[in-house]
Automatic annotation (TrEMBL):
NADP(+) binds at N89, Y154, A155, A156, T157, K158. This is 3-oxoacyl-[acyl-carrier-protein] reductase. It catalyses: a (3R)-hydroxyacyl-[ACP] + NADP(+) = a 3-oxoacyl-[ACP] + NADPH + H(+). It comes from Paenactinomyces guangxiensis. Pfam families: adh_short_C2. The active site is at Y154 (proton acceptor).
Length: 246
């Protein structure tokens, strides 16, 4: 069991990549706090995890609200007594070309994808420092590293995740924490459902491994970085994109 006796918070754990990550972590012995805005899906996945013998709880959270995040972290500590792993996975898109992007589109994506990662990390870190150990892994994106048409807001947040990851990796390593990010390419979740099929076919042609990503591709990357095997990896951005951009 690579995560035996470890408590993991997975934000955005009710759907897509987060959901797959919850099942992957549970198979490796982790105790899970599914922290998501989507209560119906979150409670359903929790029930499924428990049916499989995993220890899992759900807490509704809006990661863009510091108060909501604080309550979620307190609930996690109350339920599991500790936090070993934070997966900053919740994220949204509100795409638009630069000249027509509204302030609301800009602000909402910043609030969830950037402020959310900051609020969650700031709230869990004192608990991790106290126990002298912790793992924080956040979702960046190929868009954040290379940019993408129509994704000014999203790319800004995902580049911001890289900057925060590297700063925290330097700041927190001395306390036994490891901080890393993953940069997925195009992964088949509802997030890419809005991308026209013709565009996805074009994208697929550019991916050396010849297919779009599956949620399990990303879940396994999260698992590796959360496991003891990655103890000497700190401040890295692991690209999980089939080699779409090198
Ligand atoms: P998804 O849309 O399937 O799942 C996102 C989850 O986040 C949902 O359960 C949603 O309820 C939750 N969420 C959204 N806003 C929230 C908030 N304010 N508070 C709490 N929970 C909230 O998305 P997917 O594809 O699973 O994405 C997961 C992460 O991976 C995101 O950060 C995304 O930006 C990143 N990513 C995804 C890629 C893809 O192609 N699917 C590519 C690169 C990065």
């Amino acid at each position: 069991m690579r995560l035996g006796n470890r408590v993991a918070i997975i934000t955005g754990g009710a759907n897509g990549i987060g959901r797959e990550t919850a099942f992957t972590f549970a198979r490796e012995g982790a105790q899970l706090m599914i922290a998501d805005y989507d209560t119906a899906a979150g409670q359903e996945i929790c029930a499924q995890l428990r049916e499989k013998g995993a220890e899992a709880a759900f807490h509704q959270v809006d990661v863009s609200s510091r108060e909501s995040v604080q309550k979620m972290v307190e609930a996690t500590v109350e339920h599991f007594q500790k936090i070993d792993i934070l997966i900053n996975n919740a994220g949204i898109t509100h795409d638009g070309m630069l000249v027509t992007l509204t302030e609301e589109q800009w602000r909402r994506v910043i609030e969830v994808n950037l402020n959310g990662v900051f609020f969650c990390t700031q709230a869990v870190v004192p608990h991790m420092i106290k126990q002298g150990r912790g793992r924080i892994i956040s979702a960046s994106s190929v868009s954040g590293v290379y940019g993408n048409i129509g994704q000014t807001n999203y790319a800004a947040t995902k580049a911001g995740v890289v900057g925060m990851t590297k700063s925290w990796a330097k700041e927190l390593a001395r306390h036994g924490l490891r901080v890393n990010a993953i940069a997925p390419g195009f992964v088949q979740t509802r997030m890419v459902e809005t991308v026209p099929q013709t565009v996805l076919e074009q994208v697929q042609k550019q991916i050396p491994v010849g297919r779009l990503g599956k949620p399990s591709d990303i879940a396994h990357a999260y698992l590796f970085l959360a496991s003891d095997e990655a103890d000497y990896i700190n401040g890295t951005v692991l690209h999980v994109d089939g080699g779409i951009i090198m």
